[in-house]
Automatic annotation (TrEMBL):
Full protein name: Esterase
Pfam families hit by this protein: Esterase
InterPro entries listed in its UniProt record: AB_hydrolase_fold, Esterase-like, Mycobacterial_A85_antigen
Signal sequence, start to end: none
Organism: Fodinibacter luteus
Length: 347
């Protein structure tokens, strides 16, 4: 059966189809406190996990048979989710609700491929989403999204846009879904990548489509870092940023990340932003971060520093972790508020 909430803990149960199982281990985010190894219970295996302060928990089972280990979904739980690292079972805790806009009527839309060229050795592929009734030469706001295809597939970003336009809560707009060809290199403060998007990239998008008003840039994790750096570089052409679980690495906080190839470059750029005391072109900045995420302190530091420099900043801490469903669930009102502030309300 799916995990049961019993008083102050979640009870997981696994009943193997064969008698050869020698152990079962829960796989979930390491920041979730509690044991991982199941105990035998009759014909099955049981684990009691202290209730985490989350609204949902993604997990799998590692099932041992002697020296062999097989990682499987929970066979009794029909609730699963696609992630950037494969499918996961999901324990949804009482009170969790998916976003309203997933089931809302959506405006018909179309997709068009485009490539952006500049200082990067590789071109930057972009897929542009537009409402069907929005001609290319009609001025409309533009949303630029890093990790665009993943954001769309795993966080339903264009579904969000189509639903909120359909509901009259956002003006008709276009969404440029940027593909992360060399993600770690590009999304770690690469000056070539940032200049490519800030200059030739926005020029190319503006030549192909009529863009009205300041652009808003979105990203998560390393993409959240990149969205903020791009916003600071390209302001006032970029007027808003929505950074989710941003990888704002600091030397004093992130020893565990120090082995990452681009840690030095990221930490230097982050420190420069933290040290800034004045913004010539203040941005509207929305941020979200999970309450148990290891980088929550960095996001709080960044929000404080941006406010001190004069940016309009709202950081929302959400009861989830570092995953696309958490980022999806925080789009409204987090991104919605940024877009309304930068673009204005419909009409």
């Amino acid at each position: 059966m799916p995990p049961k909430l019993l008083d102050d803990h979640l009870r997981f149960r696994f009943v193997p189809a064969d008698p050869l199982v020698t152990g079962v281990v829960l796989q979930c985010d390491r920041v979730v406190a509690g044991p991982r190894e199941f105990r035998r219970d009759g014909e099955g295996w049981v684990l009691d996990l202290p209730r985490p302060p989350l609204c949902r928990l993604e997990y799998r089972f590692a099932v041992g048979r002697g020296d062999e280990v097989e990682v499987v979904l929970d066979p009794t739980n029909p609730v699963t989710v696609r992630t950037a690292f494969g499918e996961r079972s999901v324990a949804e805790l009482p009170g969790y609700l998916p976003p309203w806009w997933l089931a809302a009527p959506a405006v018909p839309s179309r997709l068009e491929p485009l490539t952006l060229s500049g200082e990067t050795a590789h071109e930057v592929p972009v897929t542009v989403w537009s409402p069907d009734d929005l001609p290319d030469d009609e001025p409309a706001p533009l949303l630029l999204v890093h990790d665009g295809p993943e954001y769309d597939q795993l966080a339903s970003l264009t579904t969000y846009s189509a639903a909120l336009v359909g509901a009259g809560q956002l003006p008709p707009h276009r969404v440029a879904l940027a593909h992360p060809v060399i993600r770690d290199s590009w999304y770690s403060g690469s000056p070539q990548y940032l200049r490519t998007i800030a200059a030739a990239g926005l020029d190319a998008l503006g030549a192909r489509y009529a863009v009205r008003g300041p652009v808003v840039v979105v990203g998560a994790s390393l993409g959240g870092l990149t969205a903020l750096l791009l916003g600071l570089l390209a302001a006032p052409r970029v007027g808003g940023v929505y950074a989710q679980s941003g990888s704002f690495f600091q030397v004093r906080r992130d020893v565990s990340e120090s082995g990452f190839r681009y840690f030095g470059r990221i930490s230097r750029l982050v420190q420069a932003v933290l040290d800034t005391r004045h913004a010539d072109h203040p941005l509207t900045v929305g941020m979200s971060c999970g309450t148990l995420e290891e980088n929550l302190a960095n996001n709080r530091d960044m929000a404080t520093a941006l406010r001190r420099a004069g940016h309009d900043v709202v950081l929302r801490e959400v009861p989830d972790l570092h995953n696309y469903t958490a980022w999806r669930d925080a789009l409204d009102p987090g991104l919605t508020d940024v877009l309304r502030t930068v673009w204005g309300r419909p009409g």
